[in-house]
């Protein structure tokens, strides 16, 4: 009985299956009208010809391309992109390797080859589609075209800085499957100079299609193109000139290294492009001189996004509550008034950088901690030791007791007695009684420094540049919308100064450099005779600290293997040769303030300072010749045998 | 019922994982040992600094097996049988590596069939000879003779000679607790270079140090060293 029912079911089922298959055959075998019926344009994808018929849609495409630009240091790339090279100490338990490694791998700083060329392909497609568009107005079309070319040139510039000459691909490469051969898609590396020449010629070609408007900052402008040109030409010029110091860093095909004879030509281009911005033909750019306090004024360059800021030329903009923010302030705000209890204080500028800020009389000196006979110097106020220095110091770095938002940064390392005994604790909340007393008191600053205590300063300094004082900017949820300035007017002036100096025109160089220095409170002008290579190196280091320049500058001057020579840095290394371009910078030191404790002394409660190497620092920076140009991975070379390897790797 | 189905599922997994041998290679097992030598003498190098590469062709994409020489210039690799090309990449090592006419480093053919010895002869710019290092009175002193090997157009000057000491057997410019150096221009008699350095306080305390004399050649990144000495004091 049971079986019969099962069988009937089975027969019924077979019947259904045959009917269903017949229906299927009928549907698939059916006429053409059904074909069209099924061919529905997808609603989530806009076809190219539609996108390139409306300027608003093109702008949306372009917005994505802007977002994919690459910066060495960037606010949305994470705080650690600012952290290396002993200019700062990383107070973050997961990042101590930055100060514990003894050198960098050859693949450090390389670009992701496949992502990079995917981006270049998208840029090339954008340019192809924009030029094919028939419905855009001529003005829009030209501007979009120029913006696309600017982004492509700027990206190649970023690639050449890291990798040297790379394949220069200027149209979308399509694989023809019928040919079954990829060899015509395999581009060899261009010469390093070819990439720089490309950047320069693109900037010249597009500059007049871009607006000469100082208020356009997050899109390409004439000034942005010229600033890119000036910087690229300057880099090329210095590689040509200073490459002679490291003849091993070159390849016979010129993929790495530029002939020394080309140096002057590049410097002339750099000077000319920079002067085109300086003379106002690209818009009314000028140094930001708004606030009476020069340090606050300097910090404001990086915070002020209004039209008052005529210094910023090209920025990566952010918008709070608008979907694009970054966590720089969250990660780096002083610990004691962090908006997030366990997120703060990661980026601590080093004493190496702090002492590089010169005195107002244009001389270099270490911060005076001891007198000639080695006794402590006593200071009434904790900030007195920094008095009479370049205003950019307090504008770049939050010094002990600096004001941020509504609080005062609480940095001090403990109490010190005349015999050198130190009373401190492993955390400000763990109080201890002072010698001869029984009541526990706070014996270390809430913001550090304590060796190994992450998220508080371990050098005695916090970063101020880019740090957002807006209420709520330190919260993870809101984030900060401080913009990252990629090109700014002060750098253009310094580029012009360096190019003029290299061309032997010290008077012009002094004129440009003094403008930047005057804004920083260094009112005694440098004479033409004062301008030296060391001065140029120093000025860029302090003006452009934490803006992603230091590393590339050291590379192009071929100083990287000199300043990061791998040997540990002693205190005497630290305090000597300040202002020298070849000064070693292998380990980040700190400056720890102590309260002097001796109730019987007139100095009781005054401040003394000790140069301190944070105990976490065990490695020292070693930059090998093979680090000058980052590795091209074996899988890239295996896929394209025309690519030659980097030198010294 | 449920127990059975779980059991059969587990059985299936065990079976699946047990029979996947088909698509795997055996690991390489041929030991290639050797050293980089100059006329049979060891060339001492810095730890983890001078790389060497084995290339094997015929398997599609080409990429090297890369390792570095040990401090005493030893090569030690485990490879498959087959023919390889051995190379020291361009610009590496304190020695002259044979070059092609185009200036690129030339490769050596190495055929691996079973475990074997692989000694590579190169010409260093200099050798540190007759090194003797001793400790006493809180000081480490060392003497050596510097022999200039390359004297033709490729010859290079001495940049400096340095005595390094360290707590561990890794002794170099990057790994040391103290060093003393004399620059090439100040060396009057290369047959007898002597250096001394005082031993700093070591924490935790130990009554021995390791020492080597390193020679930096002008324009060459990698240093060449004397043998390593372990000194008790």
TrEMBL record, chain A:
**One Gene Ontology term, aspect cellular component:** cell outer membrane
Give the keywords, sorted.
Cell outer membrane, Membrane, Signal
Q: Which domain of life is it from?
A: Bacteria
Q: Which Pfam families does its entry note?
A: SusD-like_3, SusD_RagB
Q: Answer whether the UniProt record assigns the keyword Thylakoid to this protein.
A: no
Domain RagB/SusD span(s) in chain numbering: 310-647
Q: Which residues form a coiled coil?
A: none
In this protein, which residues make up the domain named SusD-like N-terminal?
104-233
Q: Does the keyword Membrane apply?
A: yes
Q: Where in the cell is it found?
A: Cell outer membrane
Similarity comment: family membership = Belongs to the SusD family.
**Name recorded for this polypeptide:** Starch-binding associating with outer membrane
Originating organism: Parafilimonas terrae
From TrEMBL, chain B:
Cleavable signal peptide: 1-18
* UniProt keyword terms in alphabetical order: Signal
Outline the extent of the DUF3823 domain: 31-123, 126-228
Stored Pfam families: DUF3823 (PF12866), DUF3823_C (PF18003)
What is the designated name of this protein? DUF3823 domain-containing protein
What is the originating organism of this protein?
Answer: Parafilimonas terrae
Mind giving the lineage of the organism this protein is from?
Bacteria, Pseudomonadati, Bacteroidota, Chitinophagia, Chitinophagales
């Amino acid at each position: 009985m049971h079986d019969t029912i099962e069988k009937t079911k089975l027969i019924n089922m077979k019947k259904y299956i045959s009917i269903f298959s017949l229906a299927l055959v009928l549907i698939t075998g059916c006429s053409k009208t059904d074909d069209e019926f099924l061919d529905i344009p997808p609603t989530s994808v806009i076809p190219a010809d539609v996108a390139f018929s409306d300027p608003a849609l093109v702008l949306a495409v372009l917005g994505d391309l802007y977002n994919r630009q690459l910066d060495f240091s960037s606010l949305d790339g994470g705080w650690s992109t600012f952290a290396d090279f002993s200019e700062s100490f990383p107070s973050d338990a997961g990042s101590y390797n930055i100060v514990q490694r003894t050198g960098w791998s050859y693949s450090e700083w390389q670009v992701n080859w496949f992502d990079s060329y995917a981006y270049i392909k998208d840029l090339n497609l954008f340019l192809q589609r924009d030029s094919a568009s028939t419905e855009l107005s001529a003005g829009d079309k030209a501007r979009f075209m120029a913006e696309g070319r600017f982004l492509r040139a700027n990206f190649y510039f970023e690639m050449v800085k890291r990798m040297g000459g790379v394949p220069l691909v200027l149209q979308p490469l399509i694989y023809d499957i019928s040919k079954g051969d990829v060899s015509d898609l395999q581009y060899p590396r261009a010469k390093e100079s070819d990439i720089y020449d490309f950047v320069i010629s693109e900037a010249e070609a597009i500059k007049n299609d871009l607006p000469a408007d100082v208020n356009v900052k997050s899109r390409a402008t004439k000034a942005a193109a010229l600033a890119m040109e000036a910087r690229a030409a300057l880099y090329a010029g210095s590689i040509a000139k200073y490459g002679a110091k490291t003849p091993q860093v070159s390849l016979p095909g010129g993929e790495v290294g530029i002939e020394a004879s080309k140096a002057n030509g590049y410097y002339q281009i750099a000077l000319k492009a920079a002067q085109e911005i300086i003379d106002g033909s690209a818009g009314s750019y000028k140094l930001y001189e708004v606030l009476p306090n020069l340090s606050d004024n300097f910090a404001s360059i990086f915070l002020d996004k209004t039209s008052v800021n005529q210094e910023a030329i090209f920025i990566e903009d952010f918008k709070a509550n608008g979907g694009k923010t970054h966590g720089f302030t969250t990660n780096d705000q002083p610990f004691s008034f962090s908006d997030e209890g366990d997120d703060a204080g990661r980026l601590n500028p080093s004493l190496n950088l702090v002492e590089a800020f010169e005195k107002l009389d244009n001389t270099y000196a270490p911060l005076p901690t001891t007198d000639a006979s080695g006794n402590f110097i006593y200071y009434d106020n904790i900030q007195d030791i920094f008095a009479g220095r370049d205003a950019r110091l307090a504008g770049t770095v939050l010094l002990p007791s600096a004001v941020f938002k509504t609080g005062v940064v609480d940095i001090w390392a403990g109490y010190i007695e005349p015999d050198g005994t130190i009373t401190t604790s492993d955390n400000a909340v763990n109080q201890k009684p002072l010698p001869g007393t029984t009541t526990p008191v706070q014996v270390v600053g809430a913001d550090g420094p304590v060796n190994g205590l992450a998220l508080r300063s371990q050098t005695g300094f916090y970063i101020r540049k880019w740090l957002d004082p807006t209420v709520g900017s330190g919260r993870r949820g809101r984030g900060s919308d401080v913009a990252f300035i990629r090109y700014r007017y002060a750098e253009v002036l310094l580029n012009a100064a360096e190019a003029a100096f290299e061309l032997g025109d010290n008077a012009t160089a002094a004129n440009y450099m003094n403008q930047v220095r005057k804004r920083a409170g260094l009112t005694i002008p440098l004479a033409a005779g004062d301008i030296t290579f060391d001065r140029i190196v120093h000025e860029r280091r302090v003006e452009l600290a934490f803006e992603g320049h230091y590393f590339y500058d050291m590379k192009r001057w071929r100083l990287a293997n000199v300043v990061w020579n791998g040997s540990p840095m002693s205190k005497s290394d630290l305090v000597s040769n300040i202002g020298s371009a070849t000064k070693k910078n292998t380990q980040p030191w700190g400056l720890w303030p102590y309260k002097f404790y001796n109730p019987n002394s007139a100095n009781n409660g005054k401040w003394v300072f000790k140069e301190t190497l944070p105990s976490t620092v065990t490695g020292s920076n070693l930059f090998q010749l093979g680090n000058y140009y980052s590795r091209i991975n074996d899988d890239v070379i295996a896929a394209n045998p025309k690519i030659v390897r980097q030198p010294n790797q | 019922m449920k127990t059975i189905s779980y059991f059969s599922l587990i059985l299936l997994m065990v079976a699946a994982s047990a029979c996947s041998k088909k698509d795997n290679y055996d690991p390489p097992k041929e030991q290639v040992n050797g050293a980089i030598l100059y006329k049979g003498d060891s060339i001492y190098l810095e730890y983890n600094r001078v790389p060497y590469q084995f290339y094997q062709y015929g398997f599609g994409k080409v990429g090297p097996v890369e390792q570095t020489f040990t401090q005493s210039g030893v090569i030690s690799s485990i490879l498959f049988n087959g023919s390889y090309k051995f190379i020291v990449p361009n610009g590496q090592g304190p020695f002259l590596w044979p070059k092609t006419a185009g200036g690129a480093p030339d490769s050596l053919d190495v055929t691996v069939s079973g475990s074997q010895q692989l000694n590579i002869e190169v010409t260093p710019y200099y050798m540190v000879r007759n090194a003797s290092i001793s400790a006493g009175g809180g000081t480490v002193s060392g003497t050596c003779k510097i022999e200039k090997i390359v004297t033709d157009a490729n010859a290079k000057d001495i940049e400096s000679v340095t005595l390094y000491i360290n707590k561990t057997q890794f002794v170099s410019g990057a790994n040391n607790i103290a060093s003393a150096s004399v620059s090439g221009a100040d060396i009057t008699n290369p047959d007898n270079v002597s250096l001394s350095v005082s031993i700093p306080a070591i924490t935790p305390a130990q009554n021995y140090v390791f020492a080597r004399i390193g020679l930096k050649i002008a324009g060459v990144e990698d240093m060449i060293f004397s043998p390593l000495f372990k000194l008790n004091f």
